[in-house]
Design brief:
Blueprint lengths: L9 H5 L7 E3 L2 H10 L3 E6 L4 H11 L2 H10 L1 E6 L4 H15 L6 E5 L5 E5 L4 H17 L1 H18 L11 H14 L16 H14 L2 H16 L13 E2 L7 E2 L2 E2 H18 L2 H18 L9 E2 L2 E2 L2 E2 L7 H8 L1 H10 L26 H18 L7 E2 L2 E2 H20 L8 H26 E2 L2 E2 L2 E3 L2 E2 L6 H18 L2 H17 L32 H16 L2 H20 L5 H12 L2 E6 L7 H9 L5 E5 L20 E6 L2 E2 L6 H8 L1
Parallel strand pairs: 1-3, 2-3, 18-19
Antiparallel strand pairs: 2-4, 4-5, 6-7, 8-9, 9-12, 10-11, 13-16, 14-15, 16-17, 18-20, 20-21
Helix pairs in contact: 4-6, 5-7, 8-9, 8-21, 9-10, 9-11, 9-22, 11-12, 11-16, 12-17, 13-14, 16-17, 16-18, 16-23, 17-18, 18-19, 18-20, 19-20, 20-21, 20-22, 21-22, 23-24
Length: 678
């Protein structure tokens, strides 16, 4: 009997018709393993995962393989995005046993959940042999299996431990982290490391803030070069916008085609902030197109943002996206077909499979002649219309709280910066205005959805789908990312309820997730007990729970003046500082928050009757130091602490620049405000 048919996870639903007798993650599955005295086979993946699909087709849809699985194991299917706590525990075990990790993750565990053999993808023949070997070992070498499991649990318990050395996250430490990133930087291709190459969004956010604080030309150049290389490469969808998960090569040419919400949200922040600091036209275009992609392709009307677009289309990776020269000519005609082939580096040899090419932007279109830009836009529109007639990748429609928080924060920043550079004379002014409008609607939808659906009895739930909330409890990154997002919405709208909700989430996190030494666990003290309690302080594909909660604590403290939240943030950052010192590439978000704390962060209140278009507000957004909070509105507006007791001066809009709620003299001119922010 397959038990996945009622799951809310699209990944589990993909396996609902397998001949494997799958269980969802639940206590009953482990009870059944105890009753039968067999191991548990835990298979972890996610809906957009290419190799998860491959293993499913090869093994889980095969009757003979399923029979072996059903006879000798209780089989549990886990969506890693729905249960990041389960994924974290067993990924740590997999990495400890094999030296690497990935998905699909394949774990054999005792009936109490203790892992004793771990791996990732196995081809069918290898998997069949493995099933037989594990079943035999369980029957004939039980004592050795149990010893192995105990050793693994001891190892992962140490890897996930809280406590240890602490140190203040100082300016010197952050300067050293920036220098370390500069040494590891790929001078030729941008980014860090070789193949596969992942977008280093959190490191770029840190370097942008580091540049703003120190004036480091090197930090800014690393960001500009990497941002341009990613934007022009195959990682970026040159027709519809949006970034793929990673590049399989070291030069951003061929992506792994899945598009994840969290990557695009974080990259939207990178390009938005680069645009804010430099006015760069490429950064402007990519920020706009990424925002449009998220609003058009990932937002669900009346809900939040979907999790991902699949890597595969009809079982073929990249089918939707790649082109041959002949296909370009078929759609565009001879002249424009050759123009597009040259512009997008589409060759007869191809860069992908079977002579097809992933589109890369070989020419500078943002500063090109107006006629060239017009032709490029026309070609893009026609190619996209043709591509839309192809089969499209599936979308994982579940709403993940943390990732929606990242998207909300990104949209709030994008709208602020778009307002700074609004120019009716710009050739793309109407397009930008339209994107800002849909971005605002999507942001508000997502925030309302999290508040109405994911908040249940004062606690946050991890996922929902079709406005039905799932059972998995929110983990620390959910509380941090959503609280930070609510602080961002408060700043954008001036509505006090978002700040209240942020404070309530942070109070739960401090009460339920905090460790005695100032660190945090990733799961609450009343969450389901796993073989170890995860507490990963490093930033990987998304901010760690610890970095996310610190970001929210810093923003909330700045917006309310309640110092205990700032003090908690400083203590928690001290638990990450030694890792920043040694592994800067894996602490990018923590370092980003550290830059905010070093700068104050500044608290900027603009008392005005025009909380949207006041020139003082625009100047505040343009010149604000790293991590500053900015609120505009009528003085003493209910629910907005930054505006309390801050009147207009002589009836004129007035700006108050503060740090720790200690303010400089109020100013009424843009020039005076800029001088205070300098």
């Amino acid at each position: 009997m397959n038990r996945l048919a009622e799951a809310t996870s699209p990944y589990l639903l993909q396996h609902a018709d397998n001949p494997v007798d799958w269980w969802p993650w639940c206590a009953e599955a482990f009870d059944e393993a105890k009753r039968r005295d067999v191991p548990v086979l835990i298979s972890v993946g996610y809906a957009a995962c290419h190799w998860c699909h491959v293993m499913a087709h090869e093994s889980f849809e095969n009757e003979a393989v399923a029979r072996l699985m059903n006879d000798d194991f209780v089989c549990v299917k886990v969506d890693r995005e729905e249960r990041p706590d389960v994924d974290a525990v067993y990924m740590t075990a997999t990495q400890a046993m094999t030296g690497q990790g990935g998905w699909p993750m394949t774990v054999f565990a005792t009936p109490d959940g203790t892992p004793f053999f771990c791996g990732t993808y196995f081809p069918r023949a290898n998997f069949v042999r493995l099933l037989d070997s594990v079943a035999t070992a369980w029957r004939d070498q039980r004592e050795a299996v149990l010893r192995q499991g105990a050793a693994v649990v001891e190892a992962i318990g140490g890897a996930q431990a809280v406590g240890g050395v602490t140190a203040p996250l100082t300016a010197e430490l952050l300067d050293a982290a920036a220098a370390q990133l500069a040494k590891e930087y790929d001078e030729t291709n941008g980014g860090f490391g070789g193949a596969p190459k992942f977008p280093p969004h959190m490191n770029l956010l840190f370097l942008l803030r580091h540049h703003r604080r120190t004036g480091s030309a090197r930090s800014l150049e690393i960001v500009r070069h990497t941002a341009e290389a990613m934007a022009r490469g195959g990682l970026n969808d040159q027709l519809a916008g949006g970034f793929a998960r990673y590049s399989v090569d070291g030069h951003w040419t061929v992506p792994h085609f899945e598009k994840m919400l969290y990557d695009n949200a974080l990259l939207l922040r990178v390009y938005t902030q680069l645009w804010r600091l430099t006015g760069d036209r490429l950064a402007r275009r990519v920020a706009r197109d990424t925002a449009r992609f998220l609003a058009d392709e990932m937002h669900r009307a009346g809900e939040g943002f979907a999790s991902a677009l699949d890597a595969d289309t009809a079982g073929v990776e990249g089918l939707t996206y790649v082109w041959t020269p002949a296909q370009l000519v078929e759609v565009l005609g001879e002249d424009d077909g050759r123009f597009a082939a040259d512009l997008f580096t589409v060759t007869e040899e191809g860069t992908f499979e079977e002579g097809a090419s992933v589109l890369k932007l070989a020419r500078d279109v943002d500063d090109a002649d107006p006629a060239v830009r017009a032709r490029w836009r026309d070609v893009v529109g026609r190619l996209l219309a043709a591509r839309d007639t192809r089969p499209q990748p599936a979308r994982d429609d579940k709403v993940v709280a943390a990732w929606n928080g990242l998207a909300i924060t990104a949209f709030a920043e994008f709208q602020q910066v778009a307002a700074l550079y609004a120019d009716p004379a710009d050739e793309d002014a109407n397009l930008m205005e339209g994107v800002v409008i849909v971005a605002d609607g999507a942001m508000r939808d997502a925030a309302e959805h999290l508040a109405a659906v994911h908040l249940v009895d004062g606690r946050l739930r991890r996922v929902s789908r079709d406005r039905v909330v799932g059972d998995p409890a929110g983990v620390l990154e959910d509380y941090g990312c959503v609280a930070e997002a609510f602080c961002a919405v408060h700043q954008l709208t001036g509505e006090g309820r978002w700040l209240t909700l942020a404070g309530e989430l942070l109070d739960v996190a401090l009460a339920r997730f905090a460790a005695p030494d100032g660190a945090f666990y990733d799961t609450a003290d009343d969450a389901e007990r796993l073989v170890t309690r995860p507490a990963d302080p490093t930033d990987n594909a998304t901010p760690s729970g610890r970095s996310a909660i610190v970001a929210a604590l810093v923003a909330y403290a700045a917006l309310t003046g309640e110092t205990r939240y700032r003090e908690a943030a400083e203590v928690t950052l001290s638990t990450v500082a030694p890792i920043v010192d040694r592994h800067a590439r894996f602490t990018g978000y923590a370092a980003t928050v550290g830059e905010a704390l070093l700068s104050g962060p500044y608290e900027i209140a603009v008392a005005t009757d025009d909380p949207v278009g006041d020139p003082l507000l625009a100047a505040a957004h343009r010149h604000a130091p790293p991590g500053a909070v900015v609120v505009a509105g009528a003085p003493d507006q209910p629910g907005v602490p930054l505006l309390a007791g801050r009147p207009l001066v002589d009836g004129r809009p007035t700006a108050y620049v503060c740090r720790g709620f200690v303010c400089q003299r109020p100013v009424t001119s843009v020039e005076e405000l800029v001088a205070q922010l300098g």
